[in-house]
Write a structure and sequence with these properties.
465 residues, alpha+beta, 7-stranded mixed barrel
């Protein structure tokens, strides 16, 4: 009897162990549900192998934490098309994707649109896009983390991201038509990218005696001869003006928005993003009599997380690096003054809120990140908390380095510069209706900062949350 009891107890114990193991394996195979889950099914379960050809399919999003954000359902999925995207990132085991919805949808609280990207989860992307919003860029893509299941295969953690395009809910500027021949409108409504890859929709000019400048045109994306000639002429003129040895009478400032370029430079330096002036360097131009080229929107952000010993564009990288324009711009006193002015709006009072944002938005992903590590066989045991702490430490070190090395221009010395030591007295936000508040309104704000000496500065702030 005792022998039978012991035998049964042994098998019950074995069975319990097996059940625990099965439950554990089950929990490691798929989504955690702690984040929204996007289910995509391609037609006939075709694999996504092309970066050019879209495959038709369906999708639905389940957000168990916020059911109001659900889109479609397993029983009633919504139509989409999907293809690959990226350059070096497409070569990895885990692929990024471009998706085009059958109809415009405001996915996960972001503005309604058809066009989205599923980017690999990367902490500097989340941090950098928020910095773009803080710095008052014209428009910065929003991101939302989610888990993705493609044709029943759990793909792990992604960032659903708004793509750079001209649209009333994205970069809201005039959009020039393709094949335009009208010389009166050709100079307006452009979205282009200074690129580090050779593309078909691209022009190229000689930047200096070391390298060329490749400009990919995204909108319009099909050019008439008149449009292409104008674009070549416009970038040739800007390039010549930027490389003019006389930095005290700069004509490039008539063609390029100095303040926006200064803010773009700060973002790349704080992130220590080598690609900032190397590739994915977007510029846009609206329609107005005095329209200038404006830096942005941001894209493809990274953080080297190294010890910063110089400006990022001067530091070595592991690949052939061509820092377009910035080496000349930083010699210009007007540009350097714009950098210092924009910096004093950010530092130090906006630093901690940015760090808090990074914590709040990235640590939501901790459980999904553990599944991501298992799914893609990460070799590093680092937790997301450790990775976020490392990122924040690197960003804070970059901030302090940059604050100690604000640019002054080639014809000035530190003694010539009156560095702004003013203290902030009050910050107000004014919305488009003219209403004032100490807290920003959702949408477009004018941020008014008042200092101890009675002076004020104004910047645009766009709040999406």
């Amino acid at each position: 009897m005792n022998s039978l009891f012991t035998h049964n107890q042994h098998w019950v114990s074995r069975l319990a162990c097996v059940l625990v193991m099965l439950l554990t394996l089950s929990s490691l195979k798929g989504q955690t549900g702690t984040l929204p889950v996007m289910h995509i099914e391609t037609q006939n379960h075709q694999p996504v192998t092309s970066k050019i050809v879209y495959i038709p399919g369906t999708y639905y999003i389940v957000d168990s934490q916020n059911p109001d954000m659900n889109v479609g359902s397993a029983q009633s999925p919504m139509p989409l098309e999907i293809r690959g995207r990226g350059h070096s990132s497409w070569k990895g085991k885990k692929k990024p994707y471009k998706i085009k919805l059958g109809e415009k949808k405001p996915l996960l609280g972001m503005n309604k649109n058809k066009h989205w990207a599923l980017l690999k989860f990367y902490e500097p992307t989340v941090a950098g896009m928020q910095l773009g919003t803080i710095m008052g860029m014209d428009w910065t893509p929003s991101t939302q983390p989610l888990e993705v299941v493609l044709n029943g295969n759990y793909l792990g953690l992604y960032l659903l991201t708004e793509t750079n395009r001209i649209d009333k809910n994205r970069l809201d500027i005039y959009e020039q038509p393709n094949w335009n021949e009208d010389e009166n409108t050709i100079p307006y409504g452009w979205l282009v990218e200074v690129d580090n890859y050779i593309e078909n929709n691209q022009i190229s000019i000689r930047e200096n005696n070391k390298w060329s400048l490749r400009v990919t045109y995204h909108s319009p994306d099909s050019l008439s001869s008149a449009q292409k000639d104008w674009l070549v002429g416009a970038f040739s003129a800007m390039n010549t003006a930027i490389y003019d040895e006389d930095k005290t009478h700069s004509t490039w400032e008539q063609m390029i928005d100095v303040d926006a370029m200064a803010r773009y430079f700060i973002i790349q330096e704080v992130l220590d993003n080598s690609d900032g002036f190397h590739g994915s360097f977007y510029l846009h131009k609206d329609r107005a009599d005095d329209a200038q080229w404006v830096a942005g929107p941001l894209w493809d952000l990274s953080c080297n997380q190294r010890v910063k010993t110089d400006y990022t564009f001067k530091m070595k990288t592991s690949y052939v690096f061509t820092p377009h324009w910035i080496g000349e711009l930083i010699k210009d006193e007007d540009f350097c003054r714009a950098v210092r002015d924009a910096w004093h709006e950010f530092y130090p009072h906006q630093v901690q809120p940015w760090m808090d944002y990074i914590d709040q938005h990235l640590m939501l992903c901790d459980q999904a990140f553990e599944q991501e590590k298992i799914r893609w066989e990460y070799t590093s045991p680092e937790t997301l908390n450790e990775r976020v702490d490392n990122l924040k430490s690197a960003l804070l070190a970059n901030i302090e380095w940059f604050n100690d090395h604000l640019p002054i221009g080639q014809n000035s010395s530190v003694d010539d510069i009156n560095f702004d030591n003013r203290q902030i007295v009050k910050v107000e936000y004014i919305n488009l209706a003219g209403m004032r508040s100490t807290r920003p309104w959702r949408g477009v704000n004018i941020k008014v900062t008042t200092y101890t000496d009675g002076t004020t500065s104004t910047t645009k702030a766009i709040i999406r949350e």
